[in-house]
Amino acid sequence: MESPSLFFPSSLSSGHVGTANGLCRRKVPALFVFGDSTVDVGTNNFLPQSTARANFPHNGIDFPRAIPTGRFSNGFNSADFLAKLMGFRRSPPPFLSLTNSTFPKQIGRGVSFASGGSGILYSTGSNYGVIPMGAQIQQFEMVQGNLMAQMGEPAANFFLSKSVFLVSVGSNDIFQNFPPSDKDKFIEDLTSKFIDQLSRLYQLGARKFGIISVPTIGCCPSLRAQNPTGGCIDGLNEIALEFHGATHSLLNDLSSKLTGMKYSLGNSIEMVANVFHKPHHFDKMGAEYGRSMDFIPPSHQQSCERSRYGLTGQSLYLPPLVGKGGKVPALFIFGDSTVDVGTNNFLPTFIRANFPHNGIDFPRATPTGRFSNGFNTADFLAKQMGFRRSPPPFLSLTNSTFHKQIGKGVSFASGGAGILDSTGSDYDVVSMGAQIQQFEMVRNNLTAQMGENATNVILSKSVFLFSVGSNDIFDNSSSGQQNTTLKDKFIEDLTSKSKDHLSRLHQLGARKFGIISVPPIGCCPAFRKNNATGGCINELNDIAFKLHGATHKLLNDLSSKSEGMKYSLGNSFEMVYNVFHNPHSYGFKELTKACCGKGRLNGDYPCLPNASFCSNRHEYLFWDMYHPTEAASKLAARTLYNGTQSFVAPINFKTLAEGGC
């Protein structure tokens, strides 16, 4: 990791801190900011699942170039002005905005972890996909670890002891819990948790604490609007006042026990009261609540006025759970080549599709690793859910893209994989068990970013898509197990393993499962070509049909026992046979031959660069010897998303995705 040009320890004693650009006058080495929207400078912009944002007009109207930066303000906020007074240009940037190239340099100057909507308690803001104080401190722990690695423990400890740790938090805890059933117990719990957090920061090297107490939040416009007289809500202000007193006591007690700890506690209640009493003494300020509603799109003003538990006491526009048109926070994909969007490009396997003529109809005719002439079913389902296309492969993510992408979704699907770990084991692909282990890594990182509660909420609203099982049947058929007893045992084993996989994902937070069952795989060109008549191989189709029935029963049983679980099971068997019976209704003319390949029905060889391929691809059901064309995938996705119970049950994917949001 690149080391920033920091001069220790002599530069600190003179009040100068070296930076990559030379020396600049600063009064502290670094500023680290924690809290809620009162000091958030854009953290929530990087949380696609967050509903608490301000990165839209008219926020930022008085910021340089009128940019809505994510600050819940018309311009700069308190963190910016405090940073300026300490010799910085403005507040340090959000932790989540840092890249590989900026991270090592910036952490030596300071970082903001503040997240609008968060609180001292983990439960506060958990429904809004924000980062609670506990998780903010976990992020700082990563920064502290990197500082230790860069400059060594003594220098890092000295550096942190001279830095300022700014904390502005607590309003949302009071909003969300008002009125508390037991006010004294609530303040006691809040204070106890705050002690734990400040103590943890002290253990990590913090010594200078700047605490901004909760202001008279009952006087915010969103709360005054609920009072017929337009006056403040005294009950909220009383809790804020008592919490200030409790915070004062805890800081006094804590600093007497912790060597070197210093603190400043800002009395926001007294400050605001002073403005109320002498408004004209303060430039551009007034005692009456302002026109904060003017900063909200008109269509959202009414809901803002109704909100008793505003995230920060300001009039926030809370957009839908997902941003930019998404109907779910994230999409996580598991399975085989039917939904693989390039995982195997990163594996030493021969089961790949990252060469022509694959991708001939993809933008710029790029062979992406999809086993298709263009997009696949995962892409079209993702589009239906409001995304641009399928999320990228887990193995494609880098340090700079990982943290941003995991909140939107990831694909773990690997061509050649199966339900059983033994399936595809000879081909160096990622088995289902390993795919779920990869997801567990993603979940752990989400928890580190936003906390346990917020992660559980996001995952419960996300869709987990599965398309797997064909390769298990292929491998089993090649083993020669054809008698009824062995077939039944094989299906039992597949179902049992599927149950294990789904149950594990449920334990990890998944609640919405979209399952695409195995189609009549005996009708693929790879198998038809072995039939003298060119017909389907019924033995393979029989197993696929029985597996669908067993999966239906498994899901029905599992959902009745697993809290909050919902599922949609796509009947690929029924969908494909419907095309067979009515091909012209869907624009298909060729149902038996692959568009790309070699040999009989183009089913003897894969779609290699030297293979022949058709020009009228939209009229073919099969792209290669195993996989559907882009046209067939598009039809399947539309049917899964909007279809009736004949094709997808007990609900379609649209109801699964949108019904709970």
In short:
The protein is of the alpha/beta class.
Topology readout:
Blueprint: H1 10-13, E1 16-19, E2 22-25, E3 31-35, H2 78-85, H3 103-106, E4 110-112, H4 133-151, H5 153-162, E5 164-168, H6 171-176, H7 183-203, E6 208-212, H8 221-224, H9 234-257, E7 262-266, H10 268-277, H11 301-306, E8 331-335, H12 377-384, H13 399-405, E9 409-411, H14 432-450, H15 452-461, E10 463-467, H16 470-478, H17 484-507, E11 512-516, H18 525-528, H19 538-561, E12 566-570, H20 572-581, E13 590-594, E14 596-597, E15 612-613, E16 620-622, H21 630-642, E17 648-649, H22 653-658
Parallel strand pairs: 3-4, 3-5, 5-6, 6-7, 8-9, 8-10, 10-11, 11-12, 13-16
Antiparallel strand pairs: 1-2, 12-17, 14-15
Keywords: Hydrolase, Lipid degradation, Lipid metabolism
Family: Belongs to the 'GDSL' lipolytic enzyme family.
GO molecular function: hydrolase activity, acting on ester bonds
